[in-house]
Amino acid sequence: MNAIIDVDRLSKQYVNGPKALDDVSLQIDEGEIVALLGPNGAGKTTLISIICGLVVPSGGTVRVGGHDIRTDWRAARKLIGLVPQEITLEPFETVLNSVRFTRGLYGAPPDDAYLEQVLRSLALWDKKDAATRELSGGMKRRVLIAKALSHQPKILFLDEPTAGVDVALRREMWQVVEQLRRDGVTIILTTHYLEEAEEMADRIGVINHGKLLLMQPKDELMGEFGKKHLTVELQEPLDALPASLAERGLTLSDDRRRLGYDYDTRSERTGIARLLADLAGLGLQVRDVSTKQSSLEEVFMSLVAEPDDEGPDRDDAARPALKEATA
């Protein structure tokens, strides 16, 4: 795979503000889906804004499709489609004209057949003549995606694309994302719905306090940081948890019929065989045993453990540029 986005030692220091990005380096391969995770103010929107050419970095370089975003910005920007967090549409313009206008901004020739294909894929064709102010929030967000795809970009940035969208609509939108991946579009998304990242992403990056903590394949990340939880269901309830089991970190459920045990999948010895032998030695009869892999949410929380500050969001300064770019 060739890297379609190459970020090298990128930093951003706002005047009289926080350091939004601190020496961030990453590469994104053509055709993959990358999820960027992080708490509010972590620097995700600032990173996207710089790659899209909307915010000037304080240091470092970014190349998109081999084009430097500062010295060859026109060529770089043509490769990118952006769906911002905020819904910014001209309220009295029709859906089709809004998408046509965005295509024209990139200097692409008229192609209503392609735009029809995009609108149909997003279930918007029957709304093509409706003013955007008449649409629901979910439909407006689909229009933003259509606008971002209007000039046939090779890269699509989705900044919280399903925020405020109902579950059914969210599923439909991710089906569109999956089709875009099959078409070879590189997709970078930020999301607070961690199950989406867990389901869709090839690689996951975690950003906090302007630093890229990691960028790893999803399965590798889950294997390295994930833990498993063993549940042992007993034939008969316990009056109390035996001290020998409590010392080993086991817990007893409220109904006193299930024992819980967390173990590290990377350990050479998980201790499960010894645990089952100890249960037999205590005269406890096991009815069933099950395991559960920790979720991406649990992995994420283990990486970003400290509570968020209540101060201003470090990404707030970047969001006006995103609004302006999609107005």
UniProtKB/TrEMBL annotation:
<protein>
    <submittedName>
        <fullName>ABC-2 type transport system ATP-binding protein</fullName>
    </submittedName>
</protein>
<dbReference type="InterPro" id="IPR027417">
    <property type="entry name" value="P-loop_NTPase"/>
</dbReference>
<feature type="domain" description="ABC transporter">
    <location>
        <begin position="5"/>
        <end position="234"/>
    </location>
</feature>
<dbReference type="Pfam" id="PF00005">
    <property type="entry name" value="ABC_tran"/>
</dbReference>
<dbReference type="InterPro" id="IPR050763">
    <property type="entry name" value="ABC_transporter_ATP-binding"/>
</dbReference>
<keyword id="KW-0067">ATP-binding</keyword>
<feature type="compositionally biased region" description="Basic and acidic residues">
    <location>
        <begin position="314"/>
        <end position="327"/>
    </location>
</feature>
<dbReference type="GO" id="GO:0016887">
    <property type="term" value="F:ATP hydrolysis activity"/>
</dbReference>
<keyword id="KW-0547">Nucleotide-binding</keyword>
<dbReference type="InterPro" id="IPR003439">
    <property type="entry name" value="ABC_transporter-like_ATP-bd"/>
</dbReference>
<dbReference type="InterPro" id="IPR017871">
    <property type="entry name" value="ABC_transporter-like_CS"/>
</dbReference>
<dbReference type="InterPro" id="IPR003593">
    <property type="entry name" value="AAA+_ATPase"/>
</dbReference>
<keyword id="KW-0813">Transport</keyword>
<dbReference type="GO" id="GO:0005524">
    <property type="term" value="F:ATP binding"/>
</dbReference>
<feature type="region of interest" description="Disordered">
    <location>
        <begin position="304"/>
        <end position="327"/>
    </location>
</feature>
